[in-house]
Amino acid sequence: MRLIGNIIWLVLGGLFLAIGWALIGLVLCITVIGIPLGLQAFKMAQLTLTPFGKEIIYGGGLGSTMLNIVWLLLAGLWMALGYVAAGLVNCITVIGIPFGLQSFKMAKLALMPFGATVMRRA
Question: How many C-beta atoms lie closer than 10 Å to residue 30's C-beta?
Fold first, then answer.
């Protein structure tokens, strides 16, 4: 199911989203100040490329929490709202529910990317 879900995801726009996140990450990494933000964009690209069969492990300490607050205020809230809207649209049909759930997973990562690790499920 993971393979089929990821193939459908890639064909229906996941590849373009992942490329977009990777380009944003490259642009952000041009400056030293933007490197931490660029690394989070690469994390989003990794999850967006093939979301089925991956889980997010949240951790980190005070530093991650502080950076997540800044991220949330600058861009995270709007990105998460976009992913939630896409997830709700996907969940309208039974066939779209698995894709909606992946969008909700990305919404959570868009809110709090610092201290999170994208892991492949066994």
Answer: 10
The 3-class SS string of 38-66 reads HHHHHHHHHHHHCCCCEEEEECCCHHHHH
> What amino acid is encoded at 121 in this protein?
R
Q: What angle do CA 63, 47, 17 make, to 5 degrees?
A: 115
Model confidence pLDDT, tens digit, residues 50-95: 899 898 888 888 888 898 998 888 888 998 999 999 999 999 999 9
**Cβ contacts of 103 within 8 Å, gap of 6 or more:** 83, 84, 86, 87, 90
By the 8 A CB rule, do 74 and 102 touch? no
Are 39 and 93 in contact by the 8 Å Cβ rule? The answer is no
Burial level of 102, CB count in 10 A (0-12/13-18/19+)? buried
Round to whole Å and give the CA distance between 12 and 4: 12
The token pair that represents 93 in the structure block: 């049909």
pTM higher than 0.90 for the full model? no
